[in-house]
Design a protein that fits this description.
about 350 residues, alpha/beta, seven-stranded parallel beta sheet, five-stranded parallel beta sheet, 14 helices, about 15% strand
Length: about 350
């Protein structure tokens, strides 16, 4: 197991070269430009692998986003001066942490700032899919709605239904808090059971086996990190054990779901619908998902609020300044993830 980076030496922040891979909020970019020798991406075009490597060869700090893949080979080519990868966003699976540790490069992220924003989008799916919102909106937009009817566009009520939350971290708990107001029964699966007091606060019931949770839930919402163990966690076998009128919501990572298995379950009528904000091959979205009448397809906007993006940028700046001052950055992820 590689050692985590040693404590840094104090640096002159104004002379440090900081490369930002995507366009951030104007206030964040302005502050970065005041504090550091900052190279911004004014076009917001994603940087190629070659451009990322070139940046890592010359900069002191790289500020990537969750869509920038930083693998071991790229880290091996980085210049000796690269001391910090200050990622914009909560996810860290796009960075090879072990390779960074071996080079004694600090890695930070921006946890917590998008919790409420992402939980809100999850709730949009939890409400919208059972109530067939996408289908109803399309009907009106096509000019085919003929007026109210007693049997028109019948969905499923939320009250009394079981919401299965997979992954009960910050976002999962925020979803549970919101879902209780709609009368949903909360059941959850997590790597570790929450303290009894926290369960009582959310009215949540722990289900130790994911298969058992899937079998009983009317709506399943995913809030797990992407790891080797969680990749394709919802596959054909697990879709088959779900209720035929159940819904699946995913605002976490597209790779948590076997997309072909999901499409098969939707089109053979085994699932009522899905609410998706993330996909395994972004920005490509399978046409069969787009064509299904009860699949809500959103363009990865779970964290897309001005307030959240500004707060995330401020965390990036704080992490860089702590590192430049020779202190451990407040949002260092390397130690917890590699040693844990």
């Amino acid at each position: 197991m590689p050692n985590e980076p040693a404590q840094t030496q104090r640096r002159n922040a104004r002379e440090m070269k900081v490369v930002v891979t995507r366009q951030l909020m104007p206030s964040v970019e302005a502050r970065m430009s005041e504090l550091f020798d900052c190279q911004l991406n004014t076009t917001d075009e994603p940087m190629s692998r070659e451009a990322l490597v070139a940046a890592m060869k010359s900069c002191d700090v790289l500020v990537p986003t969750v869509t920038d893949r930083i693998d071991a080979d790229m880290i091996a080519e980085a210049g000796e001066q690269l001391g910090l990868i200050a990622s914009f966003g909560a996810g860290i699976e796009h960075i090879d942490l072990a390779a960074a540790a071996a080079r004694k490069i600090f890695v930070t992220n921006t946890p917590g700032v998008f919790t409420d924003d992402t939980a809100d989008i999850a709730m949009a799916g939890i409400i919208g899919v059972p109530r067939r919102i996408r289908e109803g909106t399309a009907l009106v937009r096509r000019g085919e709605w003929t007026g109210w009817a007693p049997s028109g566009l019948l969905g499923r009520k939320l009250g009394g239904k079981t919401l299965g939350i997979v992954g009960m971290g910050r976002i999962g708990q925020a979803v549970a808090h919101r879902a209780r107001a709609f009368g949903l029964e909360i059941a959850y699966n997590n790597r570790k059971r929450l303290p009894e007091a926290v369960e009582k606060m959310f009215g949540a019931r722990f289900v130790e086996q994911l298969d058992d949770l899937l079998a009983e839930a009317d709506i399943v919402t995913l809030h797990s990190p992407l790891t080797d163990d969680t990749r394709n966690m919802l596959d054909a076998r697990r879709f088959a054990m779900m209720k035929p009128d159940a819904s699946v919501i995913n605002t976490a990572r597209g790779e948590l779901i076997d997309q072909e298995a999901l499409i098969e379950a939707l089109y053979n009528g085994h699932l009522a619908g899905a609410g998706l904000d993330v996909y395994p091959d972004e920005p490509n979205v399978d046409k069969r998902l787009l064509q299904h009448p009860n699949v809500m397809t959103l363009p990865h906007i779970g964290s897309a609020t001005a307030e959240g993006r500004e707060a995330s940028g401020e965390k990036v700046i704080a992490n860089i300044r702590f590192w430049a001052d020779g202190h451990r950055p407040p949002d260092q992820v390397l130690e917890a993830l590699i040693s844990g």
